UniProtKB/TrEMBL annotation:
It comes from the Bacteria. Belongs to the glycosyl hydrolase 2 family. One of its GO terms (biological process) is carbohydrate metabolic process. Residues 22-141 form the Glycosyl hydrolases family 2 sugar binding domain. The lineage of its organism: Bacteria, Bacillati, Bacillota, Bacilli, Bacillales. This is Glycoside hydrolase family 2. Residues 293-575 form the Glycoside hydrolase family 2 catalytic domain. GO terms for molecular function: hydrolase activity, hydrolyzing O-glycosyl compounds. PANTHER family: BETA-GALACTOSIDASE, HYDROLASE. Keywords: Glycosidase, Hydrolase. InterPro entries: Beta-gal/glucu_dom_sf, Galactose-bd-like_sf, GH, GH2_Domain-Containing, Glyco_hydro_2_cat, Glyco_hydro_2_N, Ig-like_fold, Ig-like_GH2.
């Protein structure tokens, strides 16, 4: 059941204002390979050579262009009517994601710049607009083939190779406007405390210094029933309030927790008053849930949690990284649940917030994983750190996210096995992440060569269950670095010892049917029976080792040349879903 705050296609479902303007749709577009647009003052107006359907990038069919070759600079333009009745309010222009550097102008005046292809950002454009008139927005997106920028699975060569796909350049998530008061709620951090039956709200209020008898009220409900109403006077920009949630909303003094089997969500409405006048109203929600680690197990709400995850790269045939629709996101989640998985590892991609919303609603566990750089350099340290911390803050409130994964398979830290600088980088990211969010596990290098890490995760594409059982029958040898965890990588970097962390197999399988069109892991199979025999053998072998407390199968769906999904790229099941479910659950 959707939350009370839900608005279809609303791009920021954790922080909802009812009035907004969607700027997706047709924009003027042109390439700027010679990088002349700024000098030629295209920001004041340019003639597009193409029409593009935002938020789909020019590389995709859904954009209406479908040119896959790389172009380092591209321009977007469109006019927007700012109504006269909005005068007196602030006009905020939001971008959910632009890859990689975005420069924005309004009516020829530059209003801001943002770097980072996966984090959302916004600009206050009030000083640049004319109310009651058409206003011209211009966006220049700059991309590169640099491996010092976080790029995830985006190729940096002319053609696709191995598991790297067509690049994503420019606007690839929703662009939108909202009109707000000067005094308003700017951000909100929600922290549940299951053990104390309480929730903490950390607020940032814009314009608090101006005074004006400001007060903020929070109204908490559960399934439409009132739970708590609390208020506080606003005398500074940053404030915190803790709310006791012991209540009778669902039975006598019962805590309604969030978990896959019962993803209970509390609705909350925040109302900001200046005197008796409402100056802002924001809707949100939260889940009461706790993730912890104890005695080598991951616990959800103080109960051991066995994680049945599936790798999800979030690509679509005609739209690549951009979801073709909100319905497509829901369809993916429903199919994942139908196949007996209780979570996803979002691989090398920061996903659309609407996906996380529906995982919150439907009870899907999520590992949020940063897009990697592929070169270790001071510049890469800077770009990675800045964007990763933006993302942790932006995704913090989603109860479905239970694990942070900043690094994967030593990508961007290729010498982390022995190199002290690269090891210290991973330690720094670990501790910075914990400074923002001490409540979720952090995995510093998913797959192998761990430094400090809350969970020890291993990747192994061994082909049969028998071979897996033989390799992992002596886990002590792997954990003590006497042998590798697969054929070539150690579980821990040099100088680090196993500290009793939970152990999970977070990539395995990757089985592909026989085809010349692409690849999978290991030998391709010819028949459905052969596929299922291998799939079942591997799954049961992993589940047969008591010390392993979860797994992540590769993967949900095919992606371009990588054809090892349980679904085709257009989401057709390759095998009976009920059989996959039976293997996962029995």
């Amino acid at each position: 059941m959707a939350t009370l705050s839900y608005i279809k296609d609303y791009p920021r479902p954790q922080f909802v204002r009812r009035e907004w303007v969607n700027l997706n749709g047709e924009w003027s577009f042109r390439f700027d390979d010679d990088n002349v647009g700024e000098k030629a003052k295209w920001a004041e107006g340019f003639e597009g050579t193409h029409k593009i359907q935002v938020p789909f990038t020019y590389e995709t069919k859904a954009s209406g262009i479908g040119i896959e070759e790389f172009h380092p600079q591209v321009w977007y333009g469109r006019s927007v009517m700012i109504p006269k009745e909005a005068e007196g309010k602030r006009v905020i222009l939001h971008f959910q994601a632009v890859d990689y550097v975005a420069k924005v102008w309004v009516n020829g005046s530059r209003v801001g710049r943002h770097q980072g292809g996966y984090a959302a950002f916004s600009f206050d454009i009030t000083s640049y607009v004319t109310f009651g008139a058409e206003n011209r927005i211009a966006v220049k997106a700059e991309d590169s083939s640099s491996c010092t920028q976080p790029r995830g699975k985006q190729r940096w060569t002319r053609d696709n190779f191995e598991c790297f796909y067509v690049q994503t350049t420019g606007i690839w998530q929703t662009v939108w406007l909202e009109y707000v008061e000067e005094q308003r709620l700017d951000s909100l951090k929600i922290t549940p405390d299951v053990d104390r039956s309480s929730v903490r709200f950390d607020y940032e209020v814009n314009g608090a210094e101006a005074g004006g008898d400001l007060r903020l009220e929070a109204i908490v409900t559960l399934k439409g029933k009132p739970v708590k109403r609390v208020g506080l006077a606003i005398d500074r920009p940053c404030l915190t309030v803790e709310v006791d949630l012991v209540h009778e909303a669902n039975g006598p003094w019962k805590k309604s927790l969030w978990a896959p089997a019962h993803p209970n969500l509390y609705d909350v409405e925040f109302v900001l008053y200046s005197g008796e006048r409402v100056v802002d109203r924001v809707f949100s929600y939260f889940g009461m849930r706790k993730i912890s680690i104890e005695n080598g197990k991951v616990l959800l709400n103080n109960v051991p949690l066995y994680q049945r995850l599936i790798l999800d790269q979030g690509y679509w045939t005609d739209s690549h990284l951009t979801p073709p629709s909100e319905e497509a996101l829901i369809e993916d989640i429903d199919k994942i649940l139908e196949m007996g998985y209780n979570g996803v590892r979002k691989h090398m991609k920061i996903e659309d917030a609407r996906f996380l919303y529906w995982c919150d609603v439907k009870g899907v566990l999520v590992w949020s994983e940063m897009a990697a750089t592929f070169e270790f350099h001071d510049r890469a340290v800077d770009t990675f750190t800045t964007e990763w911390l933006e993302i942790v803050r932006q995704q913090y409130n989603h109860p479905s996210i239970i694990t942070w994964v900043p690094f994967n398979e030593s990508w961007g830290i290729p010498a982390v096995l022995r190199d002290k600088r690269q090891q210290k980088f991973t330690e720094g990211i670990y501790h910075l992440t914990k400074a923002i969010d001490p409540h979720r596990p952090v995995i510093t290098n998913d797959g192998w060569e761990h430094t400090v890490s809350d969970i020890l995760t291993l990747h192994d594409y061994v082909e049969t269950g028998e071979d897996f059982a033989a390799r992992y029958g002596d886990l002590e040898a792997i954990l003590s670095r006497k042998t590798t965890c697969n054929r070539w990588k150690y579980a821990l970097a040099e100088g680090y010892e196993y500290q009793g962390q939970p152990i999970m197999i977070t990539e395995f399988g990757g089985i592909a049917f026989r085809s010349d069109a692409g690849w999978g892991y290991g030998r391709q199979v010819a028949t459905e029976a052969e596929f299922l025999e291998r799939f079942e053998g591997l799954t049961r072998a992993i589940r047969g080792i008591d010390a392993i407390c979860g797994y992540c199968y590769t993967q949900v769906a095919d992606v371009q040349q990588e054809i090892n999904g349980l679904l085709t790229e257009d989401r057709k099941p390759k095998l009976p879903i009920e059989r996959i479910r039976e293997i996962n659950l029995n």
